[in-house]
Amino acid sequence: MTFKENLVARSPRRLAAVLAVAATTALGLGACSPITTMQTYAASDGVRGDLGESIRVENIMVLSSSEGAAGTLLGAVVNRGSEDTEVTLTVDGVSGGVPLSVEAGTTLLLSPEHEDVTLPTVPVPPGAVLAVQVSAPEAGSLTLDVPVLNGDIPPYDEYLPAENSADETA
């Protein structure tokens, strides 16, 4: 057998070996990457946080037209536990906390149509973040950096407090 015949005879085997190594490498690298859809993240403008095993706050944000104006706190509080609980939201720079009763296995929506949480004043301008402490007796506390939005983007414009809407038209 000549050199040329030997090279032609081994080419299909080499090609198969190279393809097998490439396929194994691609599968191995793909298996090492975490699946993005398996990671939890805040898919909207608000933030989320877990308080112990049973309490979760989701998509928490504040809407206000300007620093010092009233604000609406939007989002949801989820009680994945088997007992009713009280969750308290305390906003940095605003006196008093907001107690929320959340039944076991339910989600409490924070919006003017459901559980209205209006802050008398928002101490930071839109575009900044506001420290909000979330606490529950059985789960401890957690502080979140909550974004303050100005309501320029629909549907958030519908949720600005009435005081803000009157200020903008005056």
Summarize this structure briefly.
Helix content is 22%, strand content 35%.
Give the helix/strand layout.
Elements: H1 3-32, E1 47-51, E2 55-63, E3 71-79, E4 85-91, E5 97-102, E6 107-110, E7 118-119, E8 129-136, E9 140-149, H2 162-169
Parallel strand pairs: 2-9
Antiparallel strand pairs: 1-2, 2-3, 3-6, 3-7, 4-5, 4-8, 8-9
Walk me through what this model shows.
This protein is of the alpha+beta class and 170 residues long. The chain has 2 domains: 3-38; 47-169, Immunoglobulin-like. It is built from 2 helices and 9 strands, in the order H-E-E-E-E-E-E-E-E-E-H. The protein has helices at 3-32, 162-169, and strands at 47-51, 55-63, 71-79, 85-91, 97-102, 107-110, 118-119, 129-136, 140-149. The longest helix has 30 residues, at 3-32. Mean pLDDT is 85; it is low at 165-170. Residues 1-22 form the signal peptide. Keywords: Signal.
Average residue-wise pLDDT: 85
**Order of helical and strand elements:** HEEEEEEEEEH
CATH class annotation of the largest domain: Mainly Beta
State Rg.
Answer: 27 Å
Number of strands: 9
**Tally of helical runs:** 2
> Main beta sheet: strand number and arrangement?
9 strands, mixed
**Structural classification:** alpha+beta
* Oligomeric grouping of the chains: single chain
- Report the principal-axis shape: elongated
Going by CATH, the architecture of the largest domain would be Sandwich
